Amino acid sequence: MKKTKMMKKNYEFRNVLSRGKYYSGKRIEAFIKKNNKETINFLGIAIGVKIAKAVKRNHIKRLVRESYRQEEEKIKTGYKIVFLWKKKAEIQKATFQNIKKDIETIFDKAKIIEENKKT
After folding, report:
1. From 29, 31, 72, 74, which residue has the greatest number of CB atoms within 10 Å?
2. Could you give the domains of the chain?
3. Is there a contact between 41 and 4 (Cβ–Cβ < 8 Å)?
4. Using alpha carbons only, what angle is made at residue 81 by residues 84 and 64, rounded to the nearest 5 degrees?
């Protein structure tokens, strides 16, 4: 099992958002940046206040976290990843399958999936 720690501090998010590489799916955007620790990944999830009320925002965060957890074994270590919900994306379309598909697409574009574990 790989270790993933959550990013919580504002400066951690700003660092990845300003220096990371941008990847986009239909509903989710991601910024990915290499970190100095080769054995651990850092994950951050941000959903704007204007997008939805707290209950729906937290629901989306849980869906993103679970989708990431299922893909975690396939991902190379040594990255900081921040997921953002697109402002134009409809909240009603926030299903687990859609989010998981977006995350898989983003990881394929970023080429951070280990080749021997790709399914």
Report:
1. 31
2. 3-112 (3.30.230.10)
3. yes
4. 50
